[in-house]
Design goal:
With about 350 residues, this protein is of the alpha+beta class. Helix content is about 15%, strand content about 30%. The chain has seven helices and 22 strands. A six-stranded antiparallel sheet has the order 1-19-16-21-14-13. It has a six-stranded antiparallel sheet with strand order 2-3-10-5-8-12. Strands 7-6-9 form a three-stranded antiparallel sheet, with no helix packed on it. Strand 6 (about 120-125) and strand 7 (about 130) form a beta hairpin. The longest helix is centred in the first third of the chain and has 14 residues, at about 50-60. The chain is globular, with a radius of gyration of 23 Å.
Amino acid sequence: MTTTTVQTAEPDTFAERLSAFYAIGRWEAVNDALPWTPAPRSRPCMWRYANLRPFVLEAANFVKGDDAALRVLTHLNPGHREYEAACGHLYSGLQALKSGEAMTCHRHAASAIRFVHEGHGGWTAVNGDRITVSPGDVIVTPSRLWHEHGNDADDGLVIWQDCTNDPLVNTLGANFFELHPDKTHLPSTPANDTFATWGGLLLPDTRRSRQTSPLHTYPWDKCQEALDAAARAGHHSPYDGVILEYTNPATGGPVTPTTGCKLQLLRGGETTRTHRHTGSVIYIAARGQGTTTIDGTDFEWSAGDTFCVPSWAWHAHTNRHPDDDAVLFSTNEFPLLQALGLYTEEAAPEHTT
């Protein structure tokens, strides 16, 4: 027969004694570790392009050599300045490529989505596909594919914005980084044109397709054309205006398994309805001017600016100009949350008078 010895309770020292064995009473942590509703550390934040661009130009003058591959100004969130994520598990930063510069070929476990802000002559090569980029273009670099960048222009910088899932991959302890032994993969990799193969109405057989998008470039003129066509056709959301998703043409799904991106148009003078959802979003103002209200705070933006909406934050967009459209590009955590069954969305109650 087993007897149980009742331990004398010493609640004042209980937590300290227990911590010596790497344990904690769950009732002690429930408010922080187990909130009743989503409680992200990230805060709504704005990064103005006009404020950061001078620092991008200055860094281009002294960050050189091998360090130039990391010549990126990282957007830090005031809710966790020590954690290099702009919002949630999304990284964002501005990278500059000087004329005549080329970056060593490399690959990593994280996926990247790049939005080009300015400059001509820039290029990126992904898995042998050498792509010339222009302002507004979006480039997708899937996980573990060789890629490299450069600027063929005689003069002037190319500035683009890196949007990656590095924070997520690092949190999961799954990141890898590798430099190409020959410093470039282009001479040894057969040239291909992913846009010619995957950018049309008729596509290759996709029954054995991979999860990541085989299309590495989404040109601004083609995307703007699609957005305008959707607007003319009456495609409209009361919460996001005219909104389209960049997709993997092989699957119809997001461009990467964990991070998606969208392009949306707000008509002149339009104000969207307020809503919220799980999953963080980073917005880049591609065209026009507007105001986004996030949890009661107004963030006024113009072309080039970046702002973020943390998970479960109430938000609505307004195009301040009555006659001109405004366009927002965004990256989000929705694919990951949808795959895990954790995505949810709700609208704010409409006020009646």
